[in-house]
Write a structure and sequence with these properties.
The chain has about 325 residues and is mainly beta. It has a domain at about 210-333: YVTN repeat-like/Quinoprotein amine dehydrogenase (Methylamine Dehydrogenase, Chain H), CATH 2.130.10.10. It is about 0% helix and about 55% strand. It contains no helices and 31 strands. Strands 15-16-17-18-19-20 form a 6-stranded antiparallel beta sheet, with no helix packed on it. Strands 10, 11, 12, 13 and 14 form a 5-stranded antiparallel beta sheet that branches. A hairpin with a 5-residue loop joins strand 25 and strand 26 (about 270-275). The radius of gyration is 19 Å and the shape is globular. The two termini are about 25 Å apart.
Amino acid sequence: MTPISLSADASVVAAVFNRRSSHLCFALGDGTVRIVALDGGGVKEVTLTDIGSILALSPDMDDAGWLAGLDDGRLVRLEADGTVSELARHQGKWIEQVTSSPSGLRAYGAGKDAFIGDDKGFGPARTHPSTVAGVAIDPKGKRLAVAHYGGVSLWWVNSTDSKPKVLPWKGSHTSVCWAPDGGYVMTSMQENDLHGWRLPAASDIRMSGYPTKVKALAWSAKPYFLATSGADQIICWPFAGAGPSGKPPIEFGGRGTQVITRVACHPAGDGIAAGFDNGEVSIGRISWRRMALALEATKSEVTALAWSPDGRTLAAGDDDGHMHVMPVDLPPA
């Protein structure tokens, strides 16, 4: 494919490929999306809400569509042809957290409640002590992690038990993710920190010292590193073997004083992309400890960054509505 550049009068909230790597969806703050057909089939503009914004976007559990959370209280499914169908509605609440799993599960948060289900619908609310700040399904599709103030709650997907296993840590947790092997649960914090737990013992891991808030977490495919934004270098924590406890992170890829706002890991190996607060995007490999410029500065913060699941395409969007789709042939390690 040839590179594609688009623009809009709204911030780019997310850039998400469908699982088959045939289409890319940019979600915008004005309630619209741009669906890009990667085979050269053009760009489709679709309005999901004309009274608010899109707050969250995720690939759906199949390989074709997406899930979107809206500030009018709706969870919707979006097809590549632009068809929109409503899956859930919560009047007066924002749907800020959505995710799915190829195992056939969907999950989202509405206020203090998290819901998980499949193509037949959602189960009862899983209620938490504060607003749901992040949801993540484990790699085996058996547990749901929910971030909230004071820690993370782990729910068994198929259990009727109304009490989760709580991983406590004081403070406001703003996102959550599982390690690719399911052995760790990691969160970003309202403070400039990360926190995590090694399972099944639930022993604590704390990573501190970031100069700014960590807005993005991404796992490399092999070997396992947790790459993060929040500094003027890409910070990559090693998770192979006994994990990161007592080990310094790898730091590289900086571009002067610019702060990294987004990171995305290639679906295979240790490839990585980073977006900066001036709009620059760079790509490389963790094993190289260096990056090459992929996109010149736009003078606007990179707010969305994603690799296609087949690893052939990189998408980036910024706070001023610039959208870029770039074919990438990443050299071998």
